[in-house]
Amino acid sequence: MTSKVVAMLLAGGKGTRLGELTKDIAKPAVPFGGKYRIIDFTMSNLANSDISTVGVVVQYSPLMLNKHIGIGKPWGLERQTGGVSVLAPFSDREGGSWFSGTADAIVKNLNYVEQFEPDELLILSGDHVYQMDYTKMLDFHRAREADATISVIEVPMEEASRFGILNTNEDLSIYEFDEKPEHPKNNLASMGIYIFKWDVIRPYLLEDEKDESSDHDFGKDIIPKLLLDQRLLFAYRFDGYWKDVGTVASYWEANMDLLKEDFQTMLRSKTWATYPNEENRPPEYIGKTAEITNSLISSGSFIEGRIEDSVLFTGVETGGGSDVKSSIILPDAVIGDNVILERVIVTTGLKVPAGTVVRADGDEPVVLSEGTLGDYMGKGGGKNA
Q: Looking at the chain, which terminus has fewer C-beta neighbours within 10 angstroms, N or C?
């Protein structure tokens, strides 16, 4: 199977809605879940699905992402044939430019795809958290001899207008695609995971590239054109956990989800492992004054104080008398003595002075960074958010 499938993992998004979390790194490279980065979940899905030809398309702030992917060793993709390739925008004799859309990113890497002479093209996003066996979706696609298959997930009806909604017949064949409809007909939302017959999709991509009015996007442009031409498209239902961590609130929620018993299989599964590319750190140290409840504590951490319902990444230090609740502490952050944090995301390497008090006020968690720390420092050692 793997020799017939080329996976293109789109990992070039700016992630501007994540604010300080994506100030210097691409969204897929943002730390997640204590020892991972967001992209590790999709990379691990590929490894577990035995798909070994993977192009990772990067664009904005790619340095950390390039370093993290490397030659793909954590995911078993260090191969002479196929394997993983990091694909960045480039300039040729006709000049070059940023990728202008998801479809454009594939067209500009057409030579990469064509060298493998694939039967199918698998399009994935690098900024979603989920565990999925792509071989089951491929089997579904092939059994129906579909020209394209789109993975869908049921979302709450009141949230359906935020997504691309697929309207289907009883056999899950697609007859209509609504991009963020005001009055959705159902709640089957596109997950941005596509399988295309390569010989079918290739001419559509080339034609779309010539269309100056197009956004060169699979959802907005390519899928509607396939439907207009009455190509055979199917929806593939996915019933597992899936989260688009596109905002600060959803990023916080997805990390907190890992602390719930129902979602522990995402990290503990022996049959579907999530592989990190982690540094070699010493074991975590839990001090005499430490009280830890329902939290993830990662290697290299030095813990004193009270930690409750929180996710602490590698190399984190928390001081005596500190109280960290429902918070995310990113790698190598240092929390001083007698610090109180509640629903706070502390950015990588930040040193939070002793006595600082930060509590989120409202639905949005507080992102504490070099740029915002001063807002919470008062004469009394700190103030509430």
A: N
